[in-house]
Amino acid sequence: MKILAGTAHQDLARRIAKAVGTELCAAEIRKFPDGEIFVKITENIRGRDVFIIQPTSFPPNDNLMELLIMIDAAKRASAKRITAVLPYYGYARQDRKDQPRVPITAKLVANLLVAAGINRILTMDLHAQQIQGFFDIPVDHLYAAPVIVKYLREKTPENLVVVAPDTGGMKQAAAYADMLGAGVAVVGKERKSAEDVAATHLVGNVKGCNAVLVDDMTSTAGTLTAAARLLVDAGAASIRAVVSHSLLNCKGVERLANSPIEELVITDSVPQRCDVGEKVKVLSVAELLAEAIQRIHSNSSVTSLFEIT
What we know:
Strand content: 25-35%
Radius of gyration: 20 Å
Domain Ribose-phosphate pyrophosphokinase N-terminal: 1-117
Number of helices: 8
Shape: globular
CATH class of the largest domain: Alpha Beta
Function: Involved in the biosynthesis of the central metabolite phospho-alpha-D-ribosyl-1-pyrophosphate (PRPP) via the transfer of pyrophosphoryl group from ATP to 1-hydroxyl of ribose-5-phosphate (Rib-5-P).
Largest sheet: 7 strands, mixed
Order of helices and strands: EHEEEHEHEEHEHEEEHEHEEH
Structural class: alpha/beta
Binding site for D-ribose 5-phosphate: 191, 215
Distance between the termini: 30 Å
CATH architecture of the largest domain: 3-Layer(aba) Sandwich
Organism: Tichowtungia aerotolerans
Keywords: ATP-binding, Cytoplasm, Kinase, Magnesium, Metal-binding, Nucleotide biosynthesis, Nucleotide-binding, Transferase
């Protein structure tokens, strides 16, 4: 096995390699003066099982292009099998044609990865389940829930209600509620722009309850903070939020700081762009991804990684 890492999230890659019990494969990655990316794998990987770790988060275009070039380098170096490990799959929100003359960019990214030469993909908490169907190669889709639920069981009080901040997150909220033995509620929202959201109504009773907002990702925190204000008006005793992928920009951090959300629980699937402040708790998914890598390498089942004890 050889584990390669792009420049997107070196810290996570090192934690994964340590959990696997190996070192990162040596590689040279740099940019030419005109911005073109150069990759050279400086170890022999002929006939090896190669895993390339690279979340395609901010800046998504640079990180995606770097990943494609690393895949091509590994293929031309005669790697036996190449697995792209994407803790975060960029462009996942563009997964359908909901307006005239718009692309389905999540499918385009899948086509690019396959064309570059990957044999399988390992990812976590896709924005939409159907993205797995965009690939004609094996996809191992992990969930951060085992890591997050373990923390919530230790830290959250009784009388919990899991809240979906929009109707699209209802399935995920119901899954968390089942794992936590909690009730379920959902917030209806109206998106005014890419950064501004209005929470319009609440379905479910949260009065006197400890609410946990659950979402797969956040960047401006608009959806979460709007939902939190609606929960306060509905009489929630406390409000926490959990997201698998925190893409928070500085505006999102400011919104979070001024919101009634007491704590935001995130994972280290992507590096943070800003100082996220004291309200944010970061949980590591390195061991989860490392275990999946080891099982893929040994051709073992990864099903038990979805189990929560």
